[in-house]
């Protein structure tokens, strides 16, 4: 059992409704852990709350209730403690073009974190090491380049170098390859895997793409409308999915052995989460009569399944 580096316990994040409307429950009772050296994929459709959850795990959003802990200690939200925390837990954003200042050279972009944190030591050597780790070699060749002079894959590597320069214990990557061409995606995935092997880095990868989770993660947590509905080792969840939502997401992947289950409609508004199971209006198992046959259909529409604590499935059928 690896040592738990990052954990969320019964996390809730609510945003006030617009013009006095109902409160939006973006994250609604989530438990999640990332072990030392472990890669966890947090998967779900857009709007399911995964980015809000990731931001809360980095201390960028303060939870309404519940606890985020790092290395066994609850986060301290004083500015000084948060600054120290952000050295250890780094965010890698989705769009490298948007995350890089077009007027900053690669050197300045990577050195920025060192300067913000007033890190002691040889800045040039640290920048060169980070670029090298991110696969931009020889690093000196990239120092004076500007983002527009780089390919999309190289820009993403610069963003990753900017996260690595502070020698974090954890990176949180939000859709790290979503904006890249298919040919470059494989390279960046290989880089993330190499970093885990070489540095023992922990990672939380936020993605809508179960295929990406399969390629990179040790564990996967599937999120729907503010809750984790299924969580476990990647081979278990992706080869023997048990929650109807996970099954539906997997069934539409090419070469899936599962019967295709097309999800109809959109997820409900987080300000209007329905009673019962929050997935019931779209659940193929309920629509096809499997829940009725198992005698749980009435509970599906009236009773919320118990939340997933650790690994498990939030469904009355399971
Ligand atoms: Fe479907 Fe019922 Fe399970 Fe919800 S609890 S996923 S509605 S079977």
Describe the structure in your own words:
By secondary structure, the chain is an alpha/beta fold. The protein has two domains: 155 residues, P-loop containing nucleotide triphosphate hydrolases (Rossmann fold, 3-Layer(aba) Sandwich); 78 residues, no CATH class. Helices cover 35% and strands 21% of the residues. The strands form two sheets. Strands 6-7-8-3-9-10-11 form a seven-stranded mixed β-sheet, sandwiched between helices. Strands 2-1-4-5 form a four-stranded antiparallel β-sheet, with helices on one face. A hairpin with an 8-residue loop joins strand 1 and strand 2. Helix 5 packs across helix 6 and helix 6 packs parallel to helix 7. The longest helix has 18 residues. The protein is globular and about 65 Å long. The model has no long low-confidence stretch (mean pLDDT 93). The site of iron/sulfur cluster (SF4) has 13 residues, from helix 11.
Could you list the spans in which at least 5 consecutive residues all have pLDDT below 50?
none
End-to-end CA span: 26 Å
CATH class of the largest domain: Alpha Beta
The CATH topology of the largest domain is Rossmann fold
Count up the domains: 2
Structural class given helices, strands, pairing?
A: alpha/beta
Please report which band the strand proportion falls in: under 5%, 5-15%, 15-25%, 25-35%, 35-45% or over 45%: 15-25%
CATH homologous superfamily identity of the largest domain = P-loop containing nucleotide triphosphate hydrolases
Mean pLDDT comes to: 93
E-strand count:
11
